[in-house]
Structures are given as C-alpha cells and as structure tokens.
Amino acid sequence: MNSIGVFGGTFDPIHYGHLRTAFELLQALRFDEVRFMPCGDPPHRGQTFADAELRLQMVQVATAGQAGFVVDDRELKRQGPSYSVDTLSTLRADYPERPLGLIVGMDAFLGLTRWRQWREILELAHVVVAHRPGWRAPDMGPLGELLTERGTHRINDLHESLAGKIVIHDVTQLEISSTDIRDLVAGGRDPRFLTPNAVREVINQSGCYAGTDKPRK
Ligand code: ATP
Q: For position 43, what pLDDT does the model report?
C-alpha cells in the first residue's frame, strides 16, 4: 500500500547512524520510501547549532541518489515548535490512503508519553522503534502497556492498516551521535567516516560547528 516511513530529527548534523537505520528499515519493513524530516524548532530540546537551512542542506546531500530516500522540509516551513502530531496530521491530509510509520530511536520512544497528544500520534501513524545502543525496551508502565496492546512483529501489519501498531526493529548498532560530531568538530578534529563526505564539506565550508559550545540559531 505504498507505506511511508517518516524519520524526523534535528539532524544537527545527519550521520551514518541515521542513514544506516533509515536504509535498513526501508528494506526490512518494505517501506515505499523513508521521508527525512528535519525539524524546525524542536520542542523537547534547546536551540539547534546549525541553522535550519544548513541542517536541511546536510540532509539533502547525505541522501542524494539513494532510491527510496525523500527529503521533506514541511517542518522547516512552519512557524513555531515542530510537534510530531501536527506534522503527521499534514502528512495524513496529503496521503489519506498511505500507511505512515513514524521512525524513532529507542531513546526517543521512551519519552513518547511526554510528546504532545501522543495518543493521537498512534491514530495517525504506526510507530517504528529502531533499537539504539544502550537502550532497553520498556516492559512496564504506560509504554509497557502500550507495547502489549499495540506491539507487533508482523511486518504486514504496517501495510494492512494506516496507523496504530508499534514495531520494535533491531538495526545495526552504530554508536554515533550528532553531539559527538559537533564536539569533534568544535575540538578541531575530523568527523570522517562518521558522516558522509558531502556533509563534512558543508560543515567545513559553513564553519557551523567550529568552536561552538553554545547553541545558536
Ligand atoms: P544529538 O546527539 O544532537 O541528540 P542524535 O544523534 O540523537 O542527536 P537526532 O537528530 O536527535 O540525532 O535523531 C533523530 C532520530 O534518530 C531520533 O529518533 C534518534 O533516536 C535517532 N538516532 C540518532 N542517532 C542514532 C543512531 N546512531 N542509531 C540509530 N538511531 C539514531
């Protein structure tokens, strides 16, 4: 049914942890496409380091040429904080008949109940949890209950309905984070092999992380 994987993040900067995760989920969960959606003003975190335009540019150069990878800048065009529920509502309006799978890392999933209208999110999309190094799936509390109620291992469940299921899927564990890359660059070192060369070029040319230890817009 032409399912869409929705991969949101600050991507400050995008790195191979993101790209490999998206690629493995694209293939394993048989998404028609994975849509990278850099967020404008992340509600759960402080300001970003690179500005929105640069983060978008880094996502574009990192994903260029990969079949099934799509970049969607709708969150950057919207004013105010980027809430997943609002983004998914606009995607649902654009694609009323395509299943949506919101891709989140396990770290992000563990905070799901603090997201705005989080129950509504499951009315709009499935949730696909990518296992990340060092994180365990919840087995109690509201998320444990939610997993009992909505968790599935059947990949077809993601394609046979538009929303409402939760799949936890193992991906190759790459212990890379945007924070580490920013710190490397700020310390004058090279993030080679952690992120594509095209992203390194944007970082080098813009100087967006050089000497930064405080967020800026
Ligand atoms: P930061 O270090 O700034 O917190 P990050 O590396 O976690 O950034 P985000 O842009 O915040 O990157 O992540 C977007 C999504 O990608 C989140 O759902 C996050 O869990 C997931 N993610 C980030 N890094 C990895 C990784 N190495 N492997 C798998 N998923 C990841």
A: 61
